[in-house]
């Protein structure tokens, strides 16, 4: 893939708190282009696969139950250095520690319910958007 892409997901807490469209608007204002978008639900099994790197950790069940508790918005985003730029835009995992102005600072509530996911590498981004999109759905 020659373009710089990342995978992002707006999490169920953002839907519950009605922040979904505000968060999407912030992402677009920050200069990311939408290459694919979908609102869907993760089954518990899919959430466990998606977060398989965290299997066995103390928060795994909390995380996967939460991620399958309501809708998510899956996004493929394009921008130069997309993976790192998006991680900067969302801030640290724990909203209390995230920098002022970041999406998790503004819209997240707890370490689990932190409003948004962003892939941490290009390899992981490709693996992660594979859970949600077929080739034809990415333009
Ligand atoms: P994400 O992968 O969702 O973008 P991240 O890369 O900042 O977040 P990871 O370490 O990959 O953080 O953890 C994945 C997700 O697991 C976090 O976003 C958070 O929702 C949850 N999580 C991580 N650590 C904890 C924890 N100590 N307690 C509760 N939930 C946690
Ligand atoms: Mg992560």
Structural features, described:
- The protein has 139 residues and is an alpha+beta fold.
- It is built from 7 helices and 4 strands, in the order E-H-H-E-H-H-E-H-H-E-H.
- The chain has a 4-stranded antiparallel beta sheet.
- It starts with a strand and ends in a 10-residue tail after the last helix.
- The model has no long low-confidence stretch (mean pLDDT 97).
- Bound molecules: adenosine-5'-triphosphate and magnesium ion.
- Residues 59, 62-63, 93, 111-112, 114, 117-118, 120 line the site of adenosine-5'-triphosphate (ATP).
Radius of gyration: 14 Å
Low-confidence stretches: none
Bound molecules: adenosine-5'-triphosphate, magnesium ion
Kindly estimate the percentage of residues that lie in beta strands according to DSSP.
15-25%
Domain unit count: 1
Number of strands: 4
User: Sheet with the most strands?
Assistant: 4 strands, antiparallel
**Name of the level-1 CATH class:** Alpha Beta
- Give the averaged pLDDT, no decimals: 97
What's the helix count?
A: 7
CATH topology: Alpha-Beta Plaits
Element layout with pairings:
Layout lengths: L4 E6 L1 H5 L3 H10 L3 E9 L2 H7 L9 H8 L3 E8 L3 H9 L12 H5 L8 E3 L3 H8 L10
Antiparallel strand pairs: 1-3, 1-4, 2-3
Helix pairs in contact: 3-4
The structure holds adenosine-5'-triphosphate and magnesium ion.
Adenosine-5'-triphosphate binds next to helix 4 and strand 4.
């Amino acid at each position: 893939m020659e373009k710089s892409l990342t995978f992002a997901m707006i999490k169920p807490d953002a839907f519950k708190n009605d922040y979904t469209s505000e968060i999407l608007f912030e992402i677009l204002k920050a200069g990311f282009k939408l290459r694919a978008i979908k609102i869907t639900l993760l089954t518990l099994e899919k959430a466990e696969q998606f977060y398989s790197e965290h299997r066995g950790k103390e928060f795994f069940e909390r995380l996967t139950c939460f991620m399958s508790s309501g809708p998510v918005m899956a996004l493929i985003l394009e921008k130069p250095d997309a993976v790192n730029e998006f991680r900067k835009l969302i801030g640290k995992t724990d909203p209390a520690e995230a920098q002022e102005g970041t999406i998790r600072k503004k819209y997240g509530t707890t370490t689990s319910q932190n409003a948004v996911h962003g892939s941490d590498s290009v390899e992981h981004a490709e693996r992660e958007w594979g859970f949600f999109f077929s080739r034809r759905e990415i333009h």
